[in-house]
Amino acid sequence: MGWILALLVPFGGIAASGAEAEIHEIGTVGATFEAVDWERAQLAASLGKDQFLLIGGESYLVFFESFAIYEERDDFVEKLDRFIAGASANLKDFVIDSEIEFSRLEGVGRAIRRFSGVASGISVAYQIEVLSRGDGVGYLLLGWTTADRSSHLGQTMDSAGETFTLPGSDSDWFIKTQPTIHDYDFDPWTVSLAFRDSVLSPSASQPRERYSLEGDEGELAVHLFVDSLEGTIDQVLDQIVEVAASGEYEELLREEIDSPYGPAKQTFLRLEGVPATDIAIALIAIDDGRWADLRMATNKSIDRRQGLWNRLLAGLSVEAAEPIDAFPTVTQDDESSDQPLHPAAQVLLEAGRFLVSVPWDGSVHRAPTGDLLVRSDDQLTLYAASSSPSAKPTVLYEAAEDLGGDVLVWGDDTLLVRSGEETLRVHEGATHSAGFQADQASAQGSTLLLSRSPLSESLPGIQSTQYSGITRLFSRSLDGTERELAALPNQRVVALGLGQDSALVAAIPRYLPSSSEEANQQLYRIDRERGNVQRLGPWRTIKRIEPSDDGWLVSGQDSVGRVGVFRVEEGGEVSLLVRGGHEAIAGDGGRLLLLADDCRSGDQPQCVYELPMTAVLEHGLRLDPFQAQDLNAIAERLGEPAAVLSLEALEARIAAANAAARDHNGEAFPETSDGLDRLLASLVYRRELSGEALGLLADLVSWQLVADGAQFVPAVQASPARPGGSGWESRSWFAVALHPLSIVISTLYDEDGWYRPLKEIAEQTDGRQVLVSPDLAALRRGAYAAYPDAFDELVEVGSATDIGVFLADRRENLSLRGHVYQQLAGHGRGQVLTQVAEPFARIEDAAGIDVAAFYAERLSGELSPVEAEEMIAGLREAISLDPTIPGLYQQLGIAYEATERDDRRELAAACYDRVLELTSRGSVFEGSSEALERLSRETP
Fold first, then answer.
1. 3-class DSSP state of 329
2. Do the beta carbons of residue 833 and residue 822 sit within 8 Å?
């Protein structure tokens, strides 16, 4: 403590003087001290500028200014204790008065303490006090004198205190002590906080996407966020706590708080450490999935900052920015995940009743009561059997992390079975240990069938498998007793179902590689009474087994490759009911409960439907009529294909393929682009497709492209698909060349390839001529021949009339027209550009590129407000029809700036911002970026 050295100043070393009373400014923000009996002196450089000597006596006084928060008594006492701790280490015979005087008068707090000791052989008495209004600044007064004058120290300190005044209402500091509203932008919201600038100030470090404040000499921090997080308020708060605490902590309190915006809660945390850190967090819902998140961290107890926290919460407000109507907002349908539904699926699903939608990674189970239990990644929900699809479900359990596992009902218990972990019982919104472990389980009345594999032992340095030993099947009663039913050595159970008299179990050899192309899973029937095991036959994959009225419902892929829901009778006879990657949940009373992967009613990719069995028997086999094994069989029926080198050969090939398809399963191949896209999507990653089947799919793609207007280019010889190729082999402003086999390969096996190839190709060609052929060389020759010899010269020097006629003859080719517009602008032919674009821009429902080209030249010069308003109307209409053209928004921004509107800068900035959302390069991007920078400098 450097100041302690000043206490060693020899008493009597400074002569007394007869100075008159003088008002001295103390500190830096306007506090004053009227020195009647004191005169300013320089005792030691380490004590600052506010040092005083008592006139005519050996007493000394020093003022220290501190920008800390003094609200509670403990704040004052802590400041005293810190100074005294430094002094005590340098004094002998240290004695401290146990009494602490604390008082408040007219909002000013004052704490006093006394101590004594020996310094350099001199007995010294001290008095120390702290004064503050709790407005972010405080003053420590330290006085000392010789021990024989200790009785006068308090009197002389009181005399000094009587003349000490804190910064008054005429000071700049007083203005900072008045609460003011501070706005923070979280587009499109403005979040406001009311606080005193004397207490909190912006942090030197401002991380992205948050605002940070600090105070109390760096021992307090406030952070404001707007979070985008999904879940209930407690789930979101748990996520925030995990990040904010980032270690061991104790949650002191969690409670609801009042909010005019939506659900709101606060929590107080204590983080372990020396010293401990307390954190207050408030979470307030402001929109669907958006939360205002206020946090305060302090090195003091949260109780000492409760007043400040309450004031921050009371002064928090959220206001949504008024939307700027700079341009039309066009809602575009997202069809990226909407594969067309097969007509048979449409008929079948409409014949049934939609019950509930289920996420891909979820689990669904029908309880004996008919209720449906659905597990998502963090929630377990009950849908009552008697309720309508719009009825609100009951949330049985919410988790802060991924639940995982399969859900089922056993007796009165809802169980969550997770392989290799303790089975959980869900009750009254919480989970409890069920007292046993199971890898797979199925319930029938009061009996639970479960499979259990012992975990592998491990040795240091040797990577062991997860399980080893014999998989055993147990029958468990509600009272907890278990009976071993059967054992499956070296088998891993993947699915099981429990019926009245028997169980059906699917297992795979533990040490054989799993492959969807090999029938290495086995289906076993096990007698419940005797435990006899009967092998029913091999399968490729089995996802689910459920008992039904007349046997079993098995969902998966059989030994010959058929995918769907199968009926398996007690004797092992198998018949296919529903084609496709669907799952049977239950089947009784003439109804089938189906988890369909074609969902058209719910908000998730899968849906549960209750279907009449009569409709299932009529339409179920047509849901996915062309699976991999069907295509292989049809291609084999066609025999060794002749080379499809001409349009006539392609037509004959398709006719023969349709005849073979009708003979195979009673249905011809799809005759529309949507239908063929759906067929291709159903075959993604089906490695068992034969080479002949892939060739057949390529021919179907060629034929559909021709039906949609493509030109078949006669081939000399068929070319193989290029590895990694998309099938889009060559392109110009006039034509695109497509290799059908490469398109098929890209769609089926390339995760970055086509999704709905025929639809996407039609969208991306922009009216250019489409050339299709199995011959890559012929395709390239065709694409090259489509490029006119005199085209470049026409754009560079041709008249507006000639260019207009050239484009009119190719009216549907938007790609070509856009290129011509760009070239004319690049060659500085602005007037020609306007003349060429005008007839296209004047038609009803004009394309955006035509409107942008028509206005480009005029917008590069001076615009009158009247002209600007006229262009604004035209540009807004063009955007409503074609909202993805960046140039339209740049032009609209320029037009707004030329108007006399009061909000023209805000409107223009919104347009330029939209450009930056649509593109990240090019002259339109650069021009809009520069305009935004200019507006930011110009805007008041």
1. coil
2. no
- Cβ–Cβ < 8 Å for 181, 192: yes
Where b means 16+ CB within 10 Å and e means fewer, 257-292 reads: eebeeeebbbbbbbbeeeeebbbbbbbbbbeeebbb
CA-CA-CA-CA dihedral for 737, 739, 740, 742, to nearest 10: -130
Query: In angstroms, rounded to a whole number, what is the distance separating the alpha carbons of residues 129 and 76?
Result: 9
Give the Cα separation of 91 and 96 in Å (integer): 11
pLDDT for 1 beyond 50:
no
The pLDDT score that the predictor gives to residue 57 is 75
Segment among 420-429, 515-524, 561-570, 612-621 with least mean pLDDT:
515-524
Residue 314 and residue 308 in contact, taking contact as beta carbons nearer than 8 Å:
no
836 with 806: CB under 8 angstroms?
no
Q: Report CA-CA distances (Å) from 363 to 379, 590, 830, 870.
A: 11, 24, 62, 58
- Residue range 841-894, pLDDT digits in tens: 999 889 999 999 999 999 998 999 999 999 999 999 999 998 999 999 999 999
> CB of 699 within 8 A of CB of 758?
no
Choose among 414, 372, 379, 407: nearest CA to 395.
379
13 pLDDT band, cuts 50/70/90, is very low
Q: DSSP secondary structure string, 816-868?
A: HHHHHHHHHHHTT-HHHHHHHHHHHHHSTT--HHHHHHHHHHHHTS---HHHH
Which of 551, 600, 598 has the alpha carbon at shortest distance from 577? 551
Burial of 861 (0-12, 13-18, 19+ CB in 10 A): exposed
Of 883, 913, 887, whose CA–CA distance to 324 is shortest? Answer: 913
DSSP state of 275: S
State whether residue 52 is helix, strand or coil: strand
Please tell me whether residue 363 adopts helix, strand or coil conformation. strand
DSSP 560: T
User: Tokens in use for 551?
Assistant: 């046997």
Cis peptide before 275, with omega less than 30 degrees from 0?
yes
Closest by CA to 398, choosing from 230, 269, 258, 282, is: 230
Give dist(CA 748, CA 731) in Å, integer. 23
Q: Are 193 and 185 in contact (CB under 8 A)?
A: no
Sheet holding 394-398, edge to edge: 363-366, 372-375, 379-383, 394-398
Q: In Å, how far from its chain's centre is CA 856?
A: 39
Question: Distances from the Cα of 319 to the Cαs of 186, 226, 293, 331, in angstroms?
Answer: 10, 12, 15, 25
The answer to whether the pTM exceeds 0.70 is no
Task: Please determine, for residue 459, whether its predicted confidence score (pLDDT) is greater than 80.
Answer: no
- Calpha distance 637→35 (Å, rounded): 114
Q: How confident is the model at residue 4 (pLDDT cuts 50, 70, 90)?
A: very low
Beta strands in 155-276 (DSSP E): 164-165, 180-186, 189-195, 200-202, 211-215, 220-228, 249-256, 264-271
Residues β-bridged to residue 109: 104, 132
39-55 exposure pattern, b = at least 16 Cβ within 10 A, e = fewer: beeebbeebeebbbbbb
Residue 322 is predicted with a pLDDT of 77
| Residue 348 in tokens | 């079948």
pLDDT in tens, 600-659: 655 567 889 999 999 999 988 888 888 888 899 999 998 776 678 999 999 999 999 999
d(CA 196, CA 174): 10
Compute the half-sphere exposure of residue 356: CA atoms within 13 Å on the CB side of its CA. 26
Tell me the average pLDDT across 193-203: 93
